[in-house]
Amino acid sequence: MPVFISMLLAAFIFSPIWPLGTNPLPGDPFVIVNKQTNEVALINENRVQTVVSAATGKSEELTPEGLFTVTVKAPDPYYRKKDIPGGDPNNPLGSRWIGFDAEDTDGRTYGIHGTNDPSSIGKKISQGCVRLQNEAVESLYDYIPLGTKILVTSTSKDFTELGKEYGAIRE
Taking every annotated instance into account, which residue ranges of this chain make up the domain L,D-TPase catalytic (predicted)? Predict the structure, then answer.
């Protein structure tokens, strides 16, 4: 019986329907952050749905690259570093937080979030997170469930090409 349970558990963990698998399936939501262009794309239903301008890390290493998983979502996030409540106009996280597990963190260190400084969007200016206009992160928030894969990269490839490469878009 323990062997059967172990095999069943392994089948679930390595199944493509398991939310912590390695790649999205065509049609699943998939987010790509391109640090080279300072843009974020949402791929859903087998195509690029939207592309928005973003701010990324001041230096290349501040915004980690790789394939990550959304582990935390919060409306009006609390800014722990300076004890600023959600919804406060001084809160640099803006109106939404979509946290992911970069560098083995728990989704509370790196994320896609809004901003209280709209003029920063489009620049390499953050401490590592990906900033969007509040309106942009609010519009994406409901389309990015927990378990969604996020690719952070710096490339000249377009979003459709990356979506195909990572299995989010099928030809």
Answer: 29-153
